[in-house]
Amino acid sequence: MKNLVHMDLKSIEHREWHLWFLTLILIMVLGGIIVATYLFILGETYATTYARTISYRALGGLFLLITLFCIYVLHARMMFGKLRVLLVEMSSIIASTVELNVLLSAFASRIAHACSATLCQIALLTESGVALKLRSAHAVRKVGWKPQIGKTYPLGKIPACSQVITTLHPWVFHQRDLMRLPKEEDTLELLTGGLNEIRSVLVMPMVTKDRAVGILILGEMRGFGRTRFSSAKTVLTQALARQAATAIDHARLLMEVIEKSEAIKQAHFDSIKALAEALETKDVYTRGHSERTVHYAVLIAKELGLSEKEQDWIQYGAILHDIGKIGIPENILNKPGHLTEEEYEIMKRHPVMGAEIVRHIKYLDPVVPIILHDHERFDGTGYPHGLSGETIPLGARIVSLVDAYDAMTTDRVYRKAITKEEAIERIHRNAGTQFDPRLTEVFISILSRQE
């Protein structure tokens, strides 16, 4: 998009220089004619008064023509200057949002004001390409107008607009042209927005990559200071319509990418949940545990101001933190009493097993450290590697904290649940030894707000 704006600005600069250069040449020619004529008249002493009068009139006429042309050049340069400013403004709008409705609303407003039109409408082709849908409209002043945003017009019912899209050429409708439009068509309604006071209309195709994505409609009422759709206005509108069309095309492509990305993300999430559910069929006491762990882990991540991507990894890590228990015998997982030392050593293998399982899923690489270090302790007495403090990955510290809280507040095969207040007191007591003190404060604050 920036390259397109840069190209348009370069084109404007070239045209401005051409106009200034032509103006300079004309001024030099005019000066030369004045000097030559003056010298000629002075040198011809035999010239009659009549001859001199004719020479002065010819000189005056030439001077007037060149002056008028210079005025035209200055007006054209003003139009190019206005176009330059508008292109920069539109580039800023494009850079600030990909929301199509926001872009269209901003474009309609700026184009209407730039072209000194009463109203501006933007209608885009539907996905099937057989109809136009009115997407945005703006009036520069109150005209008692209620545009039918969202209405669809089949191309067969608006042949004049259809021709603009097919030929990629603009079309100007004057009052007599509007009056001749067949009443059975919807063309008049679309062009005038239902306003009988509209006296002239400019329909400009919005072209990008040699195809139209829609049309831009400028409508004009009679009024003081209003001008017809001149060639200069048409050129200005064409440049703005091309810029808007490219922005619309890019916004649509970007939205498609975002939608596909969201679909892929959801597919990943579903596959991760399937892995967690596979564990829950084996360990009945973990049923629902991963969902609760995810809930609290994401709340902490948001409270810390982590990015959306970091929140996703923590969410996935919370779902899969116990996935390694799939490799632990069921008689150990569901043992009603305390584990023996040998059984506990087997149970302690599950973080490494889980990390090995997930390590083979490439897109889950950032989740591996969370699963591997979920049972590390802040004082360095945890397992499997005895990490301490902030050497333990942040995601693992978060999951470790919420995992312990949920384990304390739900029934297990070997003990009954404790109350929320008791769990908070234990977490507070173990801050700095088992849990990260800063995360402990954040989590307790979240729990207190949920009361």
Topology (SSEs and partners):
Blueprint: H1 2-43, H2 49-96, H3 100-114, E1 119-125, E2 131-139, E3 152-154, H4 159-167, E4 171-173, H5 175-180, H6 187-192, E5 198-208, E6 211-221, H7 231-280, H8 289-303, H9 308-320, H10 330-333, H11 341-347, H12 350-359, H13 368-372, H14 394-408, H15 420-429, H16 437-449
Helix pairs in contact: 1-2, 2-3, 2-7, 3-7, 8-9, 8-14, 8-16, 9-14, 14-15
Your description of this structure?
The protein is an alpha+beta fold. It folds into three domains: 1-96; 98-261, Beta-Lactamase, CATH 3.30.450.40; 281-449, Hypothetical protein af1432 (Orthogonal Bundle). The protein is built from 16 helices and six strands. A six-stranded antiparallel beta sheet has the order 3-2-1-6-5-4. α9 packs across α14 (394-408). The two termini are 51 Å apart. The model is unreliable at 1-9 (pLDDT under 50).
Keywords:
single chain; 451 residues; alpha+beta; Beta-Lactamase; Hypothetical protein af1432; 6-stranded antiparallel beta sheet; 16 helices; elongated; disordered N terminus
